[in-house]
Amino acid sequence: MPRPAEPLLVASGLHKYFGQTKALQGASLEIGPGELVAVTGPSGSGKSTLLHCLAGLVTPDGGRVLYAGQPLPAAADDRARLRRRNLGLVLQFGQLVPELTALENVAIPLLLERTERRAAAERARAWLARLGVEDVADQRPGAMSGGQAQRVAIARALVAEPRVVLADEPTGALDTVGGEQTLAALVDAVRETGAALVLVTHDNRVSAVAEREVTVVDGRTSSWVTDR
Amino acid sequence: MRPLVVTVGTAGGRGRAALIAGCTAVVSGVLMVAAAMLRLGGEPVGYPRTTGLFAPLADPGTRSGTIFGVVLLTVPFLALLNQGVRLGTAARRRRYDALAILGATRADLRRWAAVEVGVPGAAGAVLGLGVYWLLRLGLGSWLESREIGALVPPHVGPGLWAVPVVLVVSALAAIAGAQSVRSSRRGRRTDRAFPVLWVVLLVAGAILLVLATGGSTATSDRQLMTLPALVLTVSGLTGSAPWLTLTVAHAVGSRTSSAHWLLATRRLQLDPTSASRAGLATGAAGLAVGVCAALVAEVAHYRGPDRRAYTDPVLVVVALAGLAFLLVGVALAVHITDSVLAERRAYAALSATGFPDAQLVAALRSEAVIATLPIALTGCLLGGVGYASLAESSGVWLPWAVAAVGATLAAAVASSYAAAALLAPVVRAATASAAIRTE
């Protein structure tokens, strides 16, 4: 598949140190609109750090990250706003606020954008229905299965219809069947919205759904790229 | 190898033990001051100057009210003790669950928890003798030697009468520890019935309090009535507080379109008890402010030579109420910090998805406001209206009542802001991306 001419999200020459540990050593990545990209590599290779840099959660010590051609904002609140509107995030563990119901967890990004309560609830419910978890809308995370909680988290990441979804081991805490179903739900939902998807994983079955695969080893992205 | 009871008993950490010991030391010392005042009996005490700020202790007519105020002073420290006992609830629950799987019975767990809290609590209660000695030295002997008066009886004990105080405070700590097992294992409740029994106690206490402070009651009867009235009122407020907090949280949460108010109210709905207990002392402080306002209204037009005997102590009580609100802020910060750290991964993930830290701090501040404001207002109205309704004076009390309510509300909000300011750095650290775990 030919790479889009204008990438939406770009990381170039990223370096990141945690004390003496070199997490990233010149990692680079480009994500085009609507692309499905898998970032693979062994544990501790720097995949998650790369994703956190892309999301603006971690500030790299060197290199830069551009979204839509612009550097990520310096102010934390501006980065938070960018994530809320344009970068959906799906993580591996414990993502949902335990005190809120599934519906409220999904509605939170909309309420932050000052969407009226009833309208936010309607949109959140629609997303829960699209991901097949409408029946847990009024339940708290503690009462859900791992797969249900992960689908709710996906709904939360997609409810604002971001242009890029960043998923860090989204099925890592699920069993094989639950993982496959959740991954299928994530990919389908992302394709419906036309968003790009970056999947960080060390699972070959997960990376197989991507159109392109980038490998990270010792903090460096591979010089070769697999286009499917 | 250390005995299991020692291993489990010290698992809570030194910081928690120090907080518990500190609180019981202050509670024990302050209760000894109250006990020393009680031992003065119904006779006047001839301090060099028995008017103005120090008259309440010298005059048996106002002594019962002074004792009432002194005992009320323990409430914020008891609230802080409660938070100390609850610190690390999530970790403790995991520890106890692991021990239960290994075969520990509920009685074992209760015993270990009682030791975990009871030992530092008892140590603090004994240290209370030192606190009392310091208070007696500074606010008793020192003031008396300068012919100013005395806020603490300068020539009373501590003697054998202090032993029951130490024992009661130690037992209180041990019971709080044993109870923490129940709250750790019971999990959280989202439904709560109207607390009929506690409201009955509250009303009974309020009636007794009004009778005790009423002008027609003999001095000896006042002293007999004040302490039971106090116990009933504080018990009633304590028992009713979670319901009141939950009801307000439900009312606010079902109407708000704000993300931070939604988060605040849902946190309270899931666990109203911890926050309301942390905020409980505002009820006692509000009660004191309400009574003071009614008292000031009564003596506002009085120009007698002993006027300051009434008005100066009011300033002391209001200052102490302010201190109570400040302590409540600390107790709330401890509680909220603990609850956020227990769920730090979820909050870190929420922050990662674009929920600003400032909104999270605002949510926790709103939670503190709901946990303090209704109960402070209840206390203020209870104290003010109750006292004013039986006052014989025809003083104009409405402006003072409005001022008391305004001051109480402002103090409750200020203590919530203080709590938020204290916990903001912890929240920012807890929501850092490092808390997002990937395996």
What's the topology here?
The complex is a heterodimer of chains A (228) and B (439).
Chain A: E1 9-18, E2 21-31, E3 36-40, H1 47-55, E4 62-67, E5 70-71, H2 76-86, E6 87-90, H3 102-112, H4 117-130, H5 146-158, E7 164-168, H6 176-193, E8 196-200, H7 204-207, E9 212-217, E10 220-227
Helix pairs in contact in A: 3-4, 3-5, 4-5, 5-6
Chain B: H1 4-9, H2 14-38, H3 55-58, H4 60-72, H5 74-86, H6 89-101, H7 106-145, H8 162-186, H9 196-213, H10 219-253, H11 259-270, H12 272-279, H13 281-299, H14 308-342, H15 344-352, H16 357-390, H17 398-430
Any descriptors?
heterodimer, A: 228 residues, alpha/beta, Rossmann fold, six-stranded mixed β-sheet, four-stranded antiparallel β-sheet, 7 helices, 10 strands, B: 439 residues, mainly alpha, 17 helices, 78% helix, globular
Brief summary:
The complex is a heterodimer of chains A (228) and B (439). By secondary structure, chain A is an alpha/beta fold. Chain A has 7 helices and 10 strands.
Describe it.
The complex is a heterodimer of chains A (228) and B (439). With 228 residues, chain A is an alpha/beta fold. Chain A is 35% helix and 27% strand. Chain A has a domain at 9-100 and 164-227: Rossmann fold, CATH 3.40.50.300. Chain A contains seven helices and ten strands. The radius of gyration of chain A is 17 Å and the shape is globular. The model of chain A has no long low-confidence stretch (mean pLDDT 88). Chain B is built from 17 helices and no strands. Chain B has helices at residues 4-9, 14-38, 55-58, 60-72, 74-86, 89-101, 106-145, 162-186, 196-213, 219-253, 259-270, 272-279, 281-299, 308-342, 344-352, 357-390, 398-430. The radius of gyration of chain B is 23 Å and the shape is globular. The A-B interface holds A 43, 48, 52, 55, 57-58, 76-77, 80-85, 87-89, 91-101, 104, 108-109, 111-112, 114-117, 120, 140-141, 153, 156-157, 168-169, 172-173, 200 and B 256-259, 262-263, 266-267, 269-270, 343, 345-347, 349-359, 433, 436-439.
